[in-house]
Design a protein that fits this description.
CATH superfamily: Alpha/Beta hydrolase fold, catalytic domain
Distance between the termini: 8 Å
CATH architecture: 3-Layer(aba) Sandwich
Radius of gyration: 17 Å
Order of helices and strands: EHHEEEEEHEHEEHEH
Number of helices: 6
Shape: globular
Number of domains: 1
Length: 221
């Protein structure tokens, strides 16, 4: 049985390489079932912290080459999940980047997103269901620490529940994306599956979580 191919969408201030490292336990947990393929967001995030020598040092997340899918603060070119804004910057470039990844590396059975990446995945699901992106043909979505964007121009993505099967994963001790924000996203999906873990802001992959992941994925094998 061929493994399911899943396109992986990293979080804000991460990149494809760092997200691959951070999901090593998940790859090991599901190695017989899935092949995870990682891509980079197109937007470069400026380093926001400097040391005493004025050399840039990584901000939160600590990744080199930090990237993002859109900015909620257009002028500062930064993103905060809690920030309410009228407009965002960079989303169309990110949709184009996913389209190009699908064309170059696809086809993919599913898509997985973490944090800002999970919020972005919800938007991609909307574009797919509205048939606005013909190249998108994901059969399922996994959203880890996802949330609804607070940007006014993004509210169009949440008008109707998406039919795509989804698994939503979030932690009760997540201080970056509190669990209530992930719960709000559930209403955008028809019959969402849920995996709640007691930890913080990461992709859980303990043996206790294996069954939930496997039960969800085997529907598509």
């Amino acid at each position: 049985m061929a493994p399911l191919r899943i396109l992986c969408i990293h979080g804000y201030r991460q990149n494809g390489c760092s997200f691959r490292e951070k999901t090593g336990a998940l790859r090991k947990l599901l190695k017989k079932q899935v092949e995870l393929v990682y891509m980079n967001a197109p937007l470069t995030v400026q380093q926001e912290v400097s040391d005493s020598n004025n050399d840039p040092v990584p901000g939160s997340g600590g990744d080199e080459d930090p990237r993002g899918w859109w900015f909620s603060d257009i002028q500062a070119q930064r993103f905060c999940a809690q920030q309410q804004c009228e407009e965002s910057l960079g989303l169309s470039e990110s949709v184009t980047a996913v389209r190009e990844a699908v064309n170059a590396q696809g086809p993919f059975d599913g898509i997985l997103g973490f944090s800002q990446g999970a919020a972005f995945v919800a938007m991609l699901c909307c574009l797919q269901e509205q048939k606005l992106e013909p190249e998108f043909n994901f059969r399922f979505a996994i959203l880890v620490a996802g949330f609804r964007s607070k940007c006014k121009e993004h509210q169009k993505f949440y008008n109707a529940p998406f039919q795509i099967p989804s698994l939503h994963v979030f932690g009760l001790e997540d201080k970056v994306i509190p669990d209530y924000m992930s719960r709000e996203l559930l209403t955008s999906f028809q019959d969402p599956q849920v995996l709640i873990h007691p930890g913080g802001h990461f992709v859980p992959a303990a043996s206790a979580h294996r069954q939930t992941y496997q039960d969800f994925l085997k529907r598509f094998q």
